Amino acid sequence: MTTSTRYDVTTWPVGDPYEDVGEVINSIIADIRSTQAAADVADGGRPGAVISLPPGDFRLRTQVLVDVSHLRIEGSGHGFASSSIRFNVPESEWPDLHELWPGGSRVLVDIPLRDGAAESEGAAFYVERAGSPRISSVEFANFCIDGLHFEPDGSGRHPENTYVNGKTGIYVASANDSFRVTGMGLVYLEHGLTVHHADALSVHDNFIAECGSCVELRGWGQASKITDNLIGAGFTGRSISAENHGGLLITANNVFPRGSSSVELSGVTRSSVTNNRLHSFYPGMVVLASGCSENLVASNHFLRDHEPWAPFEGVDNGRDDSYGLLRVTGDDNSVIGNHFSEVVDSRRLNPAGQAPVIVRLVSGSGNYVATNHVVALDVRAGTSGSAYSAQVDALLSTSASGRLAVTTVLVDATSVGNTVLDSGDEAQVAMDTGVNAFRATPSIPARPAPTIPAPPGSPHPSAG
């Protein structure tokens, strides 16, 4: 007897996928458990299954509980479209918009939440299984999870700009192995992807933006990667964060601004943050905290400038310009070959007159900072009501009123035994050279004023 291992939510006989796809998927998972009940049949027995979501809008009123391994939930397109731009367009203009909502294979998270609900209760997909072995090889691929709306938070801000609604796209609660999240679109969720205790997790080629926080690796984990994603959190959260991870690879991501931080690591060791394009409106773009050690931060492009979009003008992350674009607390980290562009208005520095700090070593020893290039420009930044044109104009403009004085490397007194090479001249680096090694970037000599030849027949300057 042959049992199908491929399911389509639109043809499954239980429930209505357009009214509650959660009920449908839970019924399918129950069928997978019943048809694959034996753990060992002819050297197999539990191959898992594929659950398919064709293009369409599928409301989710019931949380999906994933407790089987080797399950792939897949759609036919990530469907991401900016809800933030649409919600900040006057409603009178909505009839002229080509579309109003994200599309593709789209799950609309509409779970009713009680007051004081735990974070996990607002998850569209909740993954948990106790016992041994760990739940393995669960995949989410090529569909959109849309939180629909944000809610008032008491700040007086437009409710759709708060990044608060208690909803999470995917929440993995238990230890897991070889999970994959690929080609997904996550939008308007307070938490996009939250994974506890990950081993060999792959978060690759997703579009995760306009979420409170985007990718959060919690608890502990190892040998995972966050690669080739388009990511952008809101000002209330972090675009990429991880705690107590080893062997984590964060590479080739394009991280959009507005998140409180681009990459924030806590207790992470022997990991790499390399070849990313990072953009932020605030200091504290990359933070290595709580004893991060033996990590490589290399060949990244950092851009810090000002928010150009009027609805978010005046928002910040509470960190002043002395905080550092890259802040390190820990030992034996390498910061090599990064490009930093600090393109800000000197009149808006916080506190006033503070020279912005680019790399700050707060505590720890044995850190190696070498061959980093800093471009610091003083600009006169403005804002616009158009998100797209404002951002593009800000990115393409390289005109400035002059160079901006910065501290390229600041080594606090609590951080000793570090090496700083070719990452700023003597005036730009602040450190105790009695307890740290320093080699300055050579200064370019000032050009002498050009000699203008005297007109013919004029007296010689020494004459008379």
Give a description of the structure.
- The longest helix has 19 residues, at 17-35.
- 7% of the residues lie in helices and 36% in strands.
- With 464 residues, it is mainly beta.
- The protein has two domains: 1-36 and 47-93 and 102-230, Pectate Lyase C-like (3 Solenoid); 281-442, Pectate Lyase C-like.
- The model has no long low-confidence stretch (mean pLDDT 92).
- It has a 15-stranded parallel β-sheet that branches. It has a 14-stranded parallel β-sheet with strand order 1-2-5-9-13-16-19-23-26-29-32-35-39-41, with helices on one face. The protein has a twelve-stranded mixed β-sheet with strand order 3-6-10-14-17-20-24-27-30-33-36-37.
- The protein is built from three helices and 41 strands.
Question: What is the structure about, briefly put?
Answer:
The chain is mainly β. Helices cover 7% and strands 36% of the residues.
